[in-house]
Amino acid sequence: MYSLLIIIATILAVLLVIVVLLQSSKGGGLAGTFGGAGNMGSMFGTRRTTDFLSKSTWWIGGALAVLAVVINLFFLPGQSSSDQRSVIQEGGRTNLPTTPIVPQQQVPPTQE
Questions:
Q1: H helices within the chain, ranges in order?
Q2: 8 Å CB contact between 16 and 22
Q3: DSSP-derived 3-state class of residue 78
C-alpha cells in the first residue's frame, strides 16, 4: 500500500509540474515555447483553457498535499509513535556528561 501511494504521489507531482509550466505567464511562459496552451486554446477557447489549467493546478496540488499527509501519518514504514521521540519532544536534552571523563593511568610497578 505504501509503494502504491508513493507512486501516485510521484505521478501527481509530475502532473503538477506539467500543468504549472503550461500556464501562460506575462511573457508567454513555457506554453508558448511548446505550443501547449495554444493548441488547448483552439480546443477549449482561451478563457476556458486558463480556467481549466488554474483549477487543475489547485486540485492536483490539494490532492498531493492530502496524500503527503496521509502517507506520513499512516503509512510511513518503520515508524511507531510509541518507541521514538523527536529532538523537539526531548527538549534538546542530551545524555552527554558535562565534564570529560579522563581514563586513569596505571603506574607500572617499580622493581626494587
A1: 2-22, 29-34, 36-44, 46-74, 87-90
A2: no
A3: coil
pLDDT digits (tens, 9 = 90+) for 37-63: 455 555 555 567 778 888 888 999 999
Distance (Å, rounded) from C-alpha 17 to C-alpha 7?
16
Phi-psi region of 13 (alpha: psi -120 to 50; beta: other; left: phi over 0): alpha
The span from the CA of 21 to the CA of 109, in Å, is: 80
Residue with cell 510521484: 10
Q: Which amino acid would we find at residue 85? A: R
The Cβ-side half-sphere exposure at 28, using a 13 Å CA radius, reads 6
Question: Residue 89's Cα: distance from chain center in Å?
Answer: 22
Q: Residue 19 and residue 57: Cα distance in Å, rounded?
A: 6
